[in-house]
Description:
By secondary structure, the chain is α+β, with helices and mostly antiparallel strands. The protein folds into seven domains: 1-189 and 225-240 and 351-368, Rossmann fold; 256-350, Yeast translation eEF2 (G' domain), CATH 3.90.1430.10; 372-425 and 515-611, Elongation Factor Tu (Ef-tu), domain 3, CATH 2.40.30.10; 630-701, 2-Layer Sandwich (Alpha-Beta Plaits), CATH 3.30.70.870; 705-864 and 882-915 and 990-1009, Ribosomal Protein S5, domain 2 (2-Layer Sandwich); 1015-1094, Alpha-Beta Plaits; 1103-1152, no CATH class. The radius of gyration is 37 Å and the shape is globular. The structure holds guanosine-5'-triphosphate (GTP) and magnesium ion. Guanosine-5'-triphosphate is lined by residues 26, 28-34, 55, 67-69, 94-96, 146-147, 149-150, 236-238.
Amino acid sequence: xxxxxxxxxxxxxxxxxxxxxxxxxxxxxxxxxxxxxxxxxxxxxxxxxxxxxxxxxxxxxxxxxxxxxxxxxxxxxxxxxxxxxxxxxxxxxxxxxxxxxxxxxxxxxxxxxxxxxxxxxxxxxxxxxxxxxxxxxxxxxxxxxxxxxxxxxxxxxxxxxxxxxxxxxxxxxxxxxxxxxxxxxxxxxxxxxxxxxxxxxxxxxxxxxxxxxxxxxxxxxxxxxxxxxxxxxxxxxxxxxxxxxxxxxxxxxxxxxxxxxxxxxxxxxxxxxxxxxxxxxxxxxxxxxxxxxxxxxxxxxxxxxxxxxxxxxxxxxxxxxxxxxxxxxxxxxxxxxxxxxxxxxxxxxxxxxxxxxxxxxxxxxxxxxxxxxxxxxxxxxxxxxxxxxxxxxxxxxxxxxxxxxxxxxxxxxxxxxxxxxxxxxxxxxxxxxxxxxxxxxxxxxxxxxxxxxxxxxxxxxxxxxxxxxxxxxxxxxxxxxxxxxxxxxxxxxxxxxxxxxxxxxxxxxxxxxxxxxxxxxxxxxxxxxxxxxxxxxxxxxxxxxxxxxxxxxxxxxxxxxxxxxxxxxxxxxxxxxxxxxxxxxxxxxxxxxxxxxxxxxxxxxxxxxxxxxxxxxxxxxxxxxxxxxxxxxxxxxxxxxxxxxxxxxxxxxxxxxxxxxxxxxxxxxxxxxxxxxxxxxxxxxxxxxxxxxxxxxxxxxxxxxxxxxxxxxxxxxxxxxxxxxxxxxxxxxxxxxxxxxxxxxxxxxxxxxxxxxxxxxxxxxxxxxxxxxxxxxxxxxxxxxxxxxxxxxxxxxxxxxxxxxxxxxxxxxxxxxxxxxxxxxxxxxxxxxxxxxxxxxxxxxxxxxxxxxxxxxxxxxxxxxxxxxxxxxxxxxxxxxxxxxxxxxxxxxxxxxxxxxxxxxxxxxxxxxxxxxxxxxxxxxxxxxxxxxxxxxxxxxxxxxxxxxxxxxxxxxxxxxxxxxxxxxxxxxxxxxxxxxxxxxxxxxxxxxxxxxxxxxxxxxxxxxxxxxxxxxxxxxxxxxxxxxxxxxxxxxxxxxxxxxxxxxxxxxxxxxxxxxxxxxxxxxxxxxxxxxxxxxxxxxxxxxxxxxxxxxxxxxxxxxxxxxxxxxxxxxxxxxxxxxxxxxxxxxxxxxxxxxxxxxxxxxxxxx
Length: 1153
Ligand SMILES: Nc1nc2c(ncn2[C@@H]2O[C@H](COP(=O)(O)OP(=O)(O)OP(=O)(O)O)[C@@H](O)[C@H]2O)c(=O)[nH]1
Ligand SMILES: [Mg+2]
């Protein structure tokens, strides 16, 4: 196969209608990279013998070693069919869950996708995820069912069984697509009109009719995969063959004289060939006949495998080879590995590249076919609606749709990720072969040098004189000599310099070797990008409406313009064609193509939009499916190398779409990654690439949550708790009360009352566990709660914040749901009494206002049509409201067990009394009258955002200094601050005392209830054959995993096990499973939820049965306590540990009796 030249690709880049941008998506190990190899080989980039073995697009060393892809990489291919020539921009993506963010970056740049499914494993979890991702980005998929050879060789299915099996796989894939489609249609319908509902839900029958009628309105036929639609290819990438039924229809229409369109419709499905009548009939199954697909397609392949691989029947093979009309070399025929012969035959008979590429060109859209719906989705960030964008921005939609290639079209480019390349890999630094001219130039130089040297040796004077003539620098005798020698030296120097220049040019500047270069992975959506062009770089938070206001009309990139937030101006220095491991330099790239842009590292962190028009909005952010959860602290082996590590982490952050790097309060440098494999890759990258130093990483930092639960009804030995337990509890409480700090009382029901040190305020707080659904709701809606909080903050400052209608509806919905879950006497009117959420004002814990007679603005005030007047304005309590909230925020940020955040706890403030000295109170009220509405925002309100993040000490220290400055804006508020905040005594400012008291009260109320630790859980799906099933279970149970269900894949002996596993126990899990099952099973771990660990970390036996069962010491392993202690140890907190208790002297009895 000939190598496609760069010029050809450049020419094809201009034919937008003949470009296909697509990515290969699948579950891990379903054969994406192997398939990509076959396609790459069809362009002569790699040899077709190596296709499938080389895995060309896995260019990293660790990808080759581990055998999995870790990043998405692109390559441009040329495909010719008949008259038409196409340019295929192919992106291979990883299938491992840890790298699913790389899939998102790939999907964004494409118009279509090849979804690969393993014929044995069928639809797997990641297959569903990638189908969903393709769906969310509105790109069209086609299907490749790969590894059909496994059905023949491993599962030993007959062709008929294989047909049924393939049908099932198609059904599974279509079920996933169908679910996505119906959910979308139903969502749209629900949005449309509520009144329709009333009329359509009359009877059950009608409902069904209506529902499907809604679906029928939208054409969905192109969504489903079906071989007769031409969007399915059956393949074995490793053996190099693949076909769609179009190919067989063509073959048989010639052979049998049946029209190919008839064959196309009947080759897949319940049809059979009636040989007598020479007709194709329906009802193969009911009549027990072989379906056409089996008879005409599968049987051929099955017999080929049988003759070549299983029986190795030479005669038959030769016959088949001649009948298929393919050429096989004698060497292949004699080869000891039958697969070589098989590949040689198949790659000529049914080359997989032809089947896949012709399907892609036919069925996937070109960049010109981009739909208006997709454009609107790309252009509308967040909850903004497309029609709320400025007019100029809306007009850009046409540019997208036109995908124009002329110079007048605005340039719009989206960068989905930044990837780093070695400076050596850049085309400008690459060692290129010398041209003929350069070689002769070098030869000439060398010859001159040689001649000069010889001449100089023989007769220095002579040469000198000659040189003088040459250079014409001297005229007289004595001076001639010296000058002559000099100039002779000079001329040799210049020669050397010239020679050096030539050699430097070809090897590249060495001093730049260490430098990391970033290339932006991008696509042009409109216009032509030219090398050296200037453009705006728009960050994800850029707002065109704001910018258009501040920029002069029709301003262009070349002019000076006022600085606009999230916008920068840059020059596009280098444009590259992405060719897998190589980059090729380009002068310009027309719209519709995927490209690499060099020199953008100072402008773009991870993703950005580049445009020549300031009206262009930033594209919607990428949908990331994985949540980064695994954290480790890293440090350099040699402390002096810290700056290198910091720089390296910065580079790593830029080069990976998903990783997070942060510096914790403790000063640790922390990496947050999506999973173990991802973590390993990040560490390797840091060591070898970005920091180039030795680093050590801590054990993974596992996050926990702390919570309280309802008192358990049974004890640890499952006996119902009787009175005896109660006595013990009261006894315990009394004991603990003795330990309580001064001024605190705890009553038996768990109500904690605490007074500030200056005795001026008293708060009573009770901790109540929130129902599980409520916690989940709060967690899922953190973003909404943050919006509500912002609204309240603005309201307090007297400003208004406009929230769009959709968000308001969502907030109302959240409120309704909370109300429905918080039912019963205990929660009466609780939702309206919510005071705050925490930690960070949006977490899954609630502060409840149960103070009698205290009215304050509700957290739901954004829902009220008319803005509520500030309730309780002017009361002393209201002035200190914020201190209570801050105390609550601090208490929920770090719990008493091991300083981890709380979750699912409601703190109900039941009493709050203040007894301020009368003279101060008077002062406050007098000030109050003269203070304007605005200035009543209370002292510490302004900086409450920081409160949540600050630690206790910082806060107390900080409040002294911050307080006066925070209200120095107006003299009125200053006076008021003096009155309220100035309640200073020997215990410090009063608001600070109140914060501390509230925090302590919450912590103690928490401790008065049965406390539990919550662990982060992974769901994991493992596929294993029956013989290794037992070992998989053993590993799971050793690591505290819990099996949710287990089912057998139909038609195979593979079991699918679904289980949950604590993140804390997951490290090394995948490795252990693989080791124990000899690589036959490999799990995929995805973060799913938080779960309460049922054992009490502070449990001691209290009932008689427990004493009997566990003994007095009860020193069996307490998992929860183990976790608590490990976290405390890591944080440097006090850990109560008994190393040896009641040690007994050991004696060897046999000797000295
Ligand atoms: N029997 C058989 N094995 C195949 C076929 N295609 C790929 N494989 C094997 O499947 C394994 C995984 O192939 P890859 O191409 O690396 O899979 P992938 O989908 O790129 O994997 P990730 O990128 O890690 O998600 C390799 O060992 C291949 O040799 C096939 O058609 N038949
Ligand atoms: Mg791969």
